[in-house]
Specification:
Layout: E1 3-8, E2 12-18, E3 21-26, E4 29-34, E5 37-43, E6 47-57, E7 63-74, H1 77-82, H2 87-104, H3 108-117, H4 121-128, E8 133-144, H5 147-189, H6 191-201, E9 208-209, E10 217-218
């Protein structure tokens, strides 16, 4: 049979067919191409797909809009070409379904915190493996809360910050009072320190008369 050479790029494979029948998969590199064979190039590199926002009711009946980004790559080029006409639709719908199930089990009040730990990658990957796709990760992209819930969330955060500020102020005041009490006790135990403190705090030019056993007194002389 007549042949000529073709080059399959790095991180690609070529699925080969002859007379409508699968022949095999060729790896990247330079290879001979047989006459009458069809070569379908498949890109194995990682890629991303944006999952558009969808309205999802929470466990307590409030609707939120959630969008996501899925990272994926082809791991089975034959399944990718033969199982589904549009394999990426499987990724799209599997991600939407997994998000709907996970978010629908949450109460609206817990949604913002819980979504940070939400992991639907395994569930999506189980579905996409059937069409030759490995789901490498699914990340929540945007969360749009109802207007009333956004206001309530902002109020909770504001109250939490105000409480933290008040607690910090109370701690500072307590520390200041503790320092004053320690200083007063130290002066009571060591009268000479009280005399030295008075000398240091007197205005320039003031004459002081030191008394043995007592505090210094200003002099009029």
């Amino acid at each position: 049979a007549a042949m000529f050479r073709i080059t399959i790029p790095n991180r690609h494979v070529a699925v080969v067919y002859h007379a409508g029948q699968l022949v095999g998969v060729l790896p990247a590199g330079r290879t001979r191409r047989r006459w009458g064979h069809r070569y379908v190039l498949v890109d194995l590199r990682e890629r991303q797909q944006v999952i558009p926002p969808q309205d999802i009711p929470t466990a307590d009946g409030l609707g939120v809009r959630v969008s996501a980004v899925a990272r994926w790559a082809i791991t089975d080029p034959i399944a990718f070409l033969e199982v589904s006409q549009v394999p990426t639709d499987t990724l799209h719908f599997a991600t939407q379904l997994a998000l709907r199930e996970s978010v629908g089990a949450l109460a609206a009040a817990d949604l913002v915190v819980a979504l940070r730990r939400l992991d639907v990658t395994s569930a999506v990957d189980t579905a996409t493996r059937q069409v030759g796709i490995a789901t490498l990760g699914v990340a929540v992209r945007d969360i749009v809360l109802p207007h009333d819930l956004r206001i309530a969330t902002a109020e909770v955060i504001t109250a939490r910050l105000r409480g933290a500020a008040a607690l910090e102020t109370a701690r500072a005041e307590t520390a200041a009072l503790r320092a004053l009490a320690n200083g007063a006790r130290l002066l009571d135990e060591h009268p000479a320190l009280a005399q030295l403190r008075l000398v240091q705090s007197a205005p320039p030019g003031t004459r002081l008369v030191l008394q043995v056993g007592g505090l210094p007194e200003p002099s009029d002389d």
